[in-house]
Predict the structure of Phosphomannomutase/phosphoglucomutase.
Amino acid sequence: MAADLSNIVKAYDVRGVVPDEWDESLAELFGAAFVEVVGGSAIVVGHDMRPSSPGLSAAFARGAAARGVDVTLIGLCSTDQLYYASGSTGLPGAMFTASHNPARYNGIKMCRAGAAPVGQDTGLSQIRTLVEGWLDAGAPAVPAGTVPGTVTEQDSLKGYAEHLRSLVDLASIRPLKVVVDAGNGMGGHTVPTVFEGLPLDVTQMYFELDGTFPNHEANPLDPKNIVDLQARVLAEGADLGIAFDGDADRCFIVDERGVGVSPSAITALVASRELARNGGSGTVIHNLITSWSVPEVVRENGGTPVRTRVGHSFIKEEMAKTGAIFGGEHSAHYYFKDFWNADTGMLAALHVLAALGGQDGPLSELVASYDRYEGSGEINSTVEDQAGRLAAVKETFGGREGVTLDELDGLTVTGEDWWFNVRASNTEPLLRLNVEARDADTLARVRDEALSLIRA
């Protein structure tokens, strides 16, 4: 097909509409290019429940095997299950998913051996260059005498579940009533096995694997997509609700009142538990739009917080550099040293269950000490002149006494009892604003002034 790879090769993955922007013939080229770049003699490949995923992943496997590489197909899996397969075998891997995007999209998340990320600066640009060079004539012939690799199938779900449960002590938790919304995504595949045998009364919502997402988008960070879960938690009198995104690598938590729990509060909660597991010390990574609560809790529990840019490649790079034990993002991605520095929403969910089940109070009381400030959530504004609007914000706030600026990622403006960050989207004409303050009145004042400058 005549493909424009600039539309589908993103910062961290491949993603686009099937078959309009890419198809199985292109997936086969990506498979060949992937093994050329990452090397080795074997890879693992998995896929989600989207209708196009089995065909695309099989084509990718053909492209890799034709160049002499053995391929293990692990079939239906969550993205973090693919990371488990890569980490536990020490092999590069590829996951076919478009996460929370609509049904007509699909994509590839790739990693090197041990679940190390493949992004623009770590191999993805090289893969793109190879594929672009092969679009007209196909992949070049392999050297004479190359024996095609084998393609075999192997399930990794049981091993994945056992590994996760080895990292959290769930032996003595009290019985809990849990509602889980899988959003017709891969949580419906993984949750029954991971939760098996635990003292949990689980109410299942939308566990049927259906890549057309008939009930709601599989993106729990959008408030409209957790309305059903919130109502069901209240109707069931449940202790908590858990929502997973389409490829089940992110989780979102709802408390017993049906109120969503900030991912920053979950980051702080899990950080305190991971620090305790590691003797009360260790480095914890957090991106710059997480709450002030996160570094505060890390320090209070003996740890060292390290602030990074937004994006999993920056988190994983910093974790590897510092030997961090845990990392969290306000987008509900949670990274663990004991999970090859990769992100797994399921492990974060198990930590929440262990913390809640290890004491008698409700979840809302448990997380209150980790949720100390008022937050705006992410507010997106369509802005054509992103640089001009950022400059206006910088000029307006920069001269004020007691206000500091930094440009680690976009522009972060910090006052005595508030801060906000404005970042440009990499893919759309948007500016993204996140504001936090010590009280609701201050939050509203700072938010409204920042938005007046952004939307001028």
User: Anything to note?
Assistant: The mean pLDDT is 96. The chain has four domains: 5-155, 159-254, 263-368, 374-454. The two ends are 43 Å apart (CA to CA). The domain at 159-254 is CATH 3.40.120.10 (Alpha-D-Glucose-1,6-Bisphosphate; Chain A, domain 3).
